[in-house]
Design a protein that fits this description.
The chain has two domains: 259 residues, 3-Layer(aba) Sandwich (Carbamate kinase); 92 residues, Archaeosine Trna-guanine Transglycosylase, Chain: A, domain 4 (Roll), CATH 2.30.130. Helices cover 39% and strands 19% of the residues. The protein is built from 14 helices and twelve strands. The strands form two sheets. A seven-stranded mixed β-sheet has the order 3-4-2-1-5-6-7, with helices on both faces. A five-stranded mixed β-sheet has the order 9-8-10-11-12, sandwiched between helices. It is elongated and about 70 Å long.
Length: 371
């Protein structure tokens, strides 16, 4: 069995469909494209797969109905989403009904996944829908999402959903054949990259298309995020009929990001990709090396600076040299960390007037970002 077949032999799959695919070259939703994709999802279901769809297209559908310009401002985008979301969902519902499947709409904002309780509630809902045989269709709630709560694009959302529901494969369908060595629209000699290993540098190739928001760079970020969580990811051309079947069959289709050999568990996935830090801790280079390379806990002696207002049990970002490299659940509030930063563990009781945990962030509550 080839590596690609093993990587794509997943029972539970998340399929992200971009606006560029759903437009089919038009200025609005292409019903024929939705029906084709629904048929491909139905075929995967018939083969024993569970499929969650993450669908863009609400703004596209609303923009067409309201006759808005191609690049409306934020307020108009949210208005377009309010009009377009129901049109998008009706299109998916009709397309799946033709195949005897029930579609279930799930609208999320980043806050729904950043707060741990709501994250677990969303996971329970997805699990229940899959048990009932429905096809969840997930989209960002663009009608209320603003910069502070946006995922940024549905590529990032799809990676979070893949981790949330325990999927083993993420398929990112775009209007390009995959990741290229350069932008093929400007460089005809650009070559398609078949595989990107964990930690391997990838070229910056491709911006957002006419109807999309993410572009290839966001798909690479999402694929890497999924791979770091032990989820194989494939970026492939959703405008070509049969592409999903080809990916699921393990054929050389698109660009494969194989799963990391030592993936992060669900709790660390949430910490790294969905949590919202309440503050920041600046650490020295030695502490970063101990945390990143040796799996150690963060001790007070490695802390150099504190910012933000947080309490014990909150999530904080860890940075060194101005770069955030990890997130963790802190054992002390901001004022206490300020008092004990730089101290040895043996000096904590005197500084705090009580016995306390020796770690500022324990390694079990720490998620380190990997390249």
């Amino acid at each position: 069995m080839s590596d690609r077949i093993r990587a794509t032999a997943a029972k539970r799959v998340v399929v992200k469909v971009g606006s560029g695919v759903l437009a089919g070259g038009r200025a609005g939703l292409d019903g024929a494209v939705l029906r084709r994709l629904a048929a491909e999802v139905a075929a995967a279901r018939a083969a024993g797969r569970e499929v969650i769809v993450v669908s863009s297209g609400a703004i596209l559908a609303g923009r067409e109905r309201l006759r808005l310009p191609e690049r409306p401002d934020t307020a108009l985008k949210q208005a377009a989403a309010a009009v377009g979301q129901s049109r998008l969902m009706r299109a998916w519902e009709a397309a799946f009904a033709r195949r005897g499947l029930v579609a279930a709409q799930i609208l999320l904002t980043a806050d729904d996944l950043r707060e741990r309780g709501r994250y677990l509630n969303a996971r329970a809902t997805l699990q229940a829908l899959l048990r009932l045989g429905a096809v969840p269709v997930v989209n960002e709630n663009d009608t209320v999402a603003v910069d502070e709560i946006k995922f940024g694009d549905n590529d990032g959302l799809s990676a979070l959903v893949a981790g949330l529901c325990g999927a083993r494969l993420l398929v990112l369908l775009t209007d390009h054949d995959g990741l290229y060595s350069d932008d093929p629209r400007r460089r005809p000699d650009a070559r398609l990259i078949a595989r990107v290993e964990p930690g391997e540098p990838a070229p910056r190739a491709g911006r957002a298309g006419r109807w999309g928001t993410g572009g290839m760079e966001s798909k690479v970020r999402a694929a890497r995020q999924a791979a770091s969580a032990g989820i194989a990811a494939v970026v492939a051309n959703g405008t070509r009929p049969g592409v999903l079947a080809a990916v699921l069959a393990g054929r050389e289709e698109g660009t494969l990001f194989p799963p990391a050999p030592r993936p992060a568990g669900p709790r660390r996935q949430w910490l790294a990709f969905a949590s919202r830090p309440k503050g920041r801790l600046t650490v020295d280079a030695g502490a970063r090396e101990a945390l990143s390379e040796r799996g150690r806990s963060l001790l007070p002696s490695g802390v150099r600076g504190v910012s933000g207002v947080f309490a014990a049990g909150d999530v904080v970002g860890l940075e060194e040299g101005g770069v955030e490299f990890a997130r963790g659940i802190v054992n002390f509030g901001a004022r206490e960390v300020e008092r004990i930063k730089g101290l040895k563990t043996s000096e904590l009781e005197a500084a705090l007037g009580r016995k306390a945990a020796g770690e500022v962030v324990h390694r079990d509550n720490l998620a380190v970002f990997r390249p």
